[in-house]
Amino acid sequence: MRGIVEQVRGRVPGKLEITEEGLVHDLASPGGPHELTAARVSRRLEKVMPEGLLAHTGTPDVEDPQQGILRHPDIMVIAEADMEVEGAFDPRALLAAIEVVSRSNPDNDWTSKTRDYPLLGIPVYVIFDPCTGEGTVFSDIHTAPQGPRYATRKDFVYGEDITIGEWTISTDGLPRYPA
């Protein structure tokens, strides 16, 4: 499937990812509220994180070839040194993956990534949902009968301070999608 993604990337709109269940194609390109949320969260994190860590919003993807999973978080908390690689980042190098829910495919963030990210060993997964003005911080991977899962879930509403890993940021002033 990796070959298919590479062949069509850039020729089809939106974002392609590989999950345990197959290909996910989010047709819509992210809009203003999505991108503004990612930018504000990234900047707020970088203000409180130590030198050498980034809240990266660019490319490449994260990939675990053994699991057959290729994902592209909206924000990746990662050490600069772990970015000095060719190709996809090792998902186990991420300190956190952060997603801003897409209007066109919210189940991708709320369901399949909640399953895939602990499987990839990403210790913290955060969801910001501009549809509802709420979100969730998932952490503490544990083994479950269905495979690795997050044991801790902390829900929040926009306006509250949240802790992502070791860093606390405000969620005040994050945009919402128009009704």
TrEMBL record:
Q: Which Pfam families match?
A: Uma2
Swiss-Prot/TrEMBL keywords: Endonuclease, Hydrolase, Nuclease
Alphabetized GO MF terms: endonuclease activity
- Coiled-coil ranges (or none): none
Give every Putative restriction endonuclease domain span: 22-159
Keyword Heme in annotation: no
Write the protein's name.
Uma2 family endonuclease
Q: What species does this protein belong to?
A: Streptomyces albus
